[in-house]
Amino acid sequence: MLNRQVWIVIAGMLVLVGAAGIINIFINGEHVMGTSNYVPWGSLIAFYVFFVATSTGFTFINSLAHVFKVKRFEFLSRRLTLASIAALLMGFVMIGVELGNPLAMVYIMISPNFAAPIVWMGLLYGLYLVLHIVEFIFQLKNNHKVIDIISPIVLAVAIAAQSMLGAVFGMSVARGFWNEAYTSISFIVLAFLSGIAAAVILTHILARKNVVGKADKKAIEQLQPVFSKLLLGTVTVVLFFTVWKWIYGLYGTMPGHADALQLFAGGPLTAPYWLLEIGFVFVVPILLLVFMKKRRDLALIFSSLSLMIGIFAMRVMMVFAGQMAPLQVVFGSESAQGIREVSIFWSEWATAGFGIGGVILIYMIGEKWLDLNTASHDADVYKQKQETYEFAES
Predict the structure, then answer these.
(1) How far apart are the C-alpha atoms of 150 and 136, rounded to whole Å?
(2) How far lies 114's CA from each of 65, 108, 124, 285, in Å?
(3) Can you tell me the mean pLDDT for 151-172?
(4) All domains of the chain, ordered by start, with CATH?
(5) pLDDT at 391 over 70
(6) How far apart are CA 113 and CA 118, in angstroms?
């Protein structure tokens, strides 16, 4: 089995430490996160983006089975859906804590400004959660007829929510580093990449710990070439967006954009950017996937771990870099010059741990109490035909 006790202990410790960090933020206020008038968005915004994007990524992979009818992914459906719901819930925890008061989320819902992308983002993610839970219930009931109807809707809402999250950043005209027309598209691509990486890690653990049967273990092995191609292809697309981000910033010299890029080229974010983002997101995965084809299983798991760490760091640096550059709201107006200082305090790291532990804990509870072994669509159709035949005979 999956060493369930060990995972639950680890997850429980992360949740307890995270709860201490969350309580500290609620009691002492947002200043314990290092936010200020100049840097109003802290690291918890980045953690929120990471969790909800990973949830969307799981949905993308799950949709290959029920929307695009790639049957080789069908046996993972329930587990991917449960993992997606868990990641989404932890994303809501991140944004709730970042607001400093969970009631602020209620206030936004009862007094929405429909001209603001962040309101539509919240509505879409709320709808996404409800539909996702409904989808999971019918998956547990093995009702493929309803699943085939609701899965495309869930996918469409997930894409809309993720693109609207990108719009929250992309439409921030005052922040040149974020203000780009293709921000929403790049968010969707990155969500797909994090979903593939997370799915590889999940399937690796399932196969190694004998959680699934021999047939599913063999199916996981057969998915390795597919996962490898999906990872390599998506990393290439993300690299394409990254290269053009540098070209636009340096050639166009757009205010705020070029300044933010200087943070990565000799500024305070140089080391983490080139090591964690360029190294862990691009260099390591590409080298592993291209030159370790004979040990594809190891290449996949290490490249996926590298990607999850790198994408996590990428989200944090994106949020910070957009605010660290000097901001001049109105041309000719006075504004504070110089690079804004940012930092991540223990309460924030603890809250991130709460999110990771929460995802593991929710998933492990599902493994223990729910039947996550998906019956094939063909078997369900055969069963329905048999029941119809028996009814007609009687």
Answers:
(1) 10
(2) 35, 10, 12, 41
(3) 95
(4) 40-326+342-377 (1.20.1630.10)
(5) no
(6) 9
